[in-house]
Amino acid sequence: MKVKQLLPIFTVLVSSFASYAQNCPPVPEVQSILNRTLKTPFTAVSVEPVESFSACKVKTAEGETFFLSLDKKFLIEGFLTKVPPLKISEEDYLKLRKNVLFSTGKGEEIIVVTNPLCNACRQNREKLKKLVEKVKLSFVPAAFNREQEKVAVDAVCRKKDAQNFFEIQPPLLTCDRGKLKVWTVSDTLKKYGITGTPVFIFPDRSVTVGILEFSQKISDFIKLTTFQP
């Protein structure tokens, strides 16, 4: 990798992505990005932020080093490579729809994979409430650690809805139906390197992870669906 080739790219990264916090994606998500971006297979072993510019340093088992922009749109190895958008298979899309706990709103459906403990979701509940005036949000519980699993299973067992999904009501209930649904959804997302919530799946099966990425895409989606002939 030649430093001279990368200098203009680093300049672009600093100016374009300076607003992003130094928060690199986990290794499984980076592995998913490498898989769909590069023709040659590489195995990601570590991801760490680079303080001098807004990117993450990715080391692979094969000895190669890449840089991933913090918005996860560009992968760098001597030249800038655009990361293809993440899409789930039709089979997995139908699997997620089958495990919807509740829906609210009308219009085009967006699947929201989340957890009652999701801080970003809790902090943006009012924004999500406003969205249901324009789109249909279908909520699917998922979990990526033991504590998340307990409350997600409880939500399914209690058949929670938009009014009480983010409320924790001890003692937490457990049921086989809840475990099966939560495990199925979580395992499905892990195939794509997704290990956190919230996750938003649009009708074309494209995926955004996190509130920031979703906020950037939803405005264009609403304009497109609103002005369709």
TrEMBL record:
The keyword Hydrolase does not apply. It comes from the Bacteria. Keywords: Signal. This is Thiol:disulfide interchange protein DsbC. It comes from Phorcysia thermohydrogeniphila. SUPFAM superfamilies: Thioredoxin-like. Residues 1-21 form the signal peptide. Residues 110-212 form the Thioredoxin-like fold domain. It holds the Pfam family Thioredoxin_2.
